[in-house]
């Protein structure tokens, strides 16, 4: 056997094998590799989009949390001011009620004093009439008059 013919035959077979691979085997492999590269690129892009969306969501959640804290602080401040207002209103109401009760008690005391004075006047008038009656029953004598006045004074 001739080595040149074998080498030539192997070269022809190798060229036919390369042609066959390039015609029938290589295109599906390159298509599969292209699709896989596209899927990997799409996956990486989706990962980047997801990462950026996560960053945006994190920033938005921090903003919402900050706004919620501000609103909570405002609500607490309003509640505290309303509580202070209610306490002031209650104090004012208590003062008014105290003044009303004090005025009522003063009026009641004045009425009791007036009643006591009227009762005292009635008693003094009755005593004066009784004294005058006693004086008129006895004869007119200065010593007896003084005695009667002392007895009237002791009854008062």
Please tell me how large the radius of gyration is.
62 Å
Mean pLDDT: 87
Number of helices: 2
End-to-end separation in angstroms reads 174 Å
How many domains is the backbone divided into?
1
DSSP strand content = under 5%
Number of strands: 0
Largest sheet: none
Structural class: mainly alpha
SSE series: HH
- Could you name the ranges where pLDDT drops below 50 across 5 or more consecutive residues? none
Q: What multimeric state do the chains show?
A: single chain
- What overall form do the CA principal axes indicate? rod-shaped
Helix content: over 70%
Features of the shown structure:
156 residues; mainly alpha; 96% helix; rod-shaped
Structure explained in plain terms:
The chain has 156 residues and is mainly alpha-helical. It has one domain (3-112). 96% of the residues lie in helices and 0% in strands. The chain contains two helices and no strands. The protein has helices spanning 3-137, 142-155. Helix 1 packs antiparallel against helix 2 (142-155). The mean pLDDT is 87.
Topology diagram in text:
Blueprint: H1 3-137, H2 142-155
Helix pairs in contact: 1-2
Offer a quick outline of the entry.
By secondary structure, the protein is mainly alpha-helical.
């Amino acid at each position: 056997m001739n080595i040149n013919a074998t080498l030539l035959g192997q070269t022809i077979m190798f060229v036919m094998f390369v042609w066959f691979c390039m015609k029938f085997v290589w295109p599906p492999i390159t298509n599969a590799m292209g699709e896989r590269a596209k899927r990997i690129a799409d996956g990486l892009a989706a990962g980047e989009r997801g990462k950026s969306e996560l960053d945006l969501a994190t920033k938005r959640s921090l903003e919402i949390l900050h706004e919620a804290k501000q609103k909570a602080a405002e609500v607490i401040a309003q509640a505290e001011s309303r509580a202070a207002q209610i306490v002031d209103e209650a104090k004012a109401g208590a003062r008014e009620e105290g003044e009303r009760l004090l005025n009522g008690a003063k009026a009641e005391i004045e009425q009791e004093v007036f009643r006591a004075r009227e009762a005292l006047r009635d008693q003094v008038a009755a005593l004066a009439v009784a004294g005058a009656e006693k004086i008129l029953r006895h004869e007119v004598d200065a010593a007896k008059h003084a005695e009667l006045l002392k007895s009237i004074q002791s009854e008062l």
